[in-house]
Each structure stands twice: as structure tokens, then as C-alpha cells.
Amino acid sequence: MEQFKKHQTKLIIAAIVVIFLVGLLIYSMKFKTSKQSFESETSGFIRINNLEKSDNMNEESHESQPETIKVDISGEVKMPGVYELSRDSRIHDLIKLAGGVTESANLNATNQSRALKDQDKIIIKSMMSASSESSETDDNKTQDSTKESGEIDLNTASESELQGITGIGQKKAQRIIDYRKKHGNFSSIDDLKNVTGIGDKFIESIRADVKV
Hints:
This protein has helices at residues 2-64, 91-97, 127-150, 159-162, 170-183, 200-206; strands at residues 68-75, 81-86, 121-124, 152-153, 210-211. The chain is mainly alpha-helical. The protein folds into 3 domains: 1-64; 68-129, Roll (Ubiquitin-like (UB roll)), CATH 3.10.20.600; 147-211, AF1531-like domain (DNA polymerase, domain 1, Orthogonal Bundle), CATH 1.10.150.280.
């Protein structure tokens, strides 16, 4: 009888422990679910709040930019001056406001589709100025080309290149090269008079064709 009571007591204690553990597990699961729900709601609130702030900033930025710009136009237009246009305007819109171009305008030098910015300065060139600039550029190129092609370096020229100079044949060219090998590079064109067979008069006749 006494053993039965001891066994019964153990069963009761075991049952109490099991009930306690089950209750603890249920409480833990409910607490975890409640915490996740709270975090989800909080995260959603933060995202919504951030989106609202971003929208407000974009609206403020958009409102801070003026809807119009002011641009100056001059040159070959009928009514040069400063004009106020919408922010998305192009150069051809500005030309229309300025009354169009004159008969001497060179629109090929202007990109009429370019977008305008506030405080831009647009100059419409004339056909005459474009022609003058082109002619001046061509003249400069011709002069540079003539200068570069007409001068032969006495310190680097080969025998055949030296023979391309008026008055210098094979013998003179060879003597120039021999002198260069023996004495080093020429320091000036006048040093040519140290070469046998070359005098001051000959040097003056080729001065424009050579360099050192």
C-alpha cells in the first residue's frame, strides 16, 4: 500500500512537470508570434513614413525650381535680347521669339535642337563670319604646311634628303654628313661654311630651306 502511494506521488509530480512545460511552450510561441507581428507593423510604418518623406522632398525640390528660364540671344536675329521661356525650350524656340533670323544668318553653325539652360548666351553667326573664319584657318594651315615641308634639318637629314636642297649634289651632301660625323651636330646654319666647298653666299641661298 505504501509503495502504491509513492508511485502515485511520482505520477502526480511528473504530470505537473509536463503541464508546466507545455504551458511554458505555449506561452513562448504566443510571445514570439506577438513580437513578430509588432516588428512587422513597425517596419511597415517606418517604410510608409520614409516614402512620405521622400515624396515631400521631391515635391519641395520640384517646387523650388522655377518653371521658366531667361536666355540672351544676339547676332543674326531680327530682335536680339533677353527672353523668358519654359524650362524645356530649345534654341529654335528662342529664335522664333527673337523674330527669326536675318538673311545673312548661318544656321548650319547652330544646333537648333539643343536644350536651353537658364542664363544661356546664344550667338547666331553670319555667313560672312563663317567664311572668314574658314578662310583664315585654311591660310594658317597652308602656311604651317609650307613651313614644315620646306625646312630640312641639317643634323638629321640623310644624303638623299640633303640632295633635295637646291645647289647640293651628292658630293656636297656627303661632305656635310662627314663633317657632322666628325664634329657633331651643327649649332647654327652658318656652321655650314666650315664644310669644304660651301661659302656664305651659298648659305644665304638655302637658309630658308634648312634648319638645325
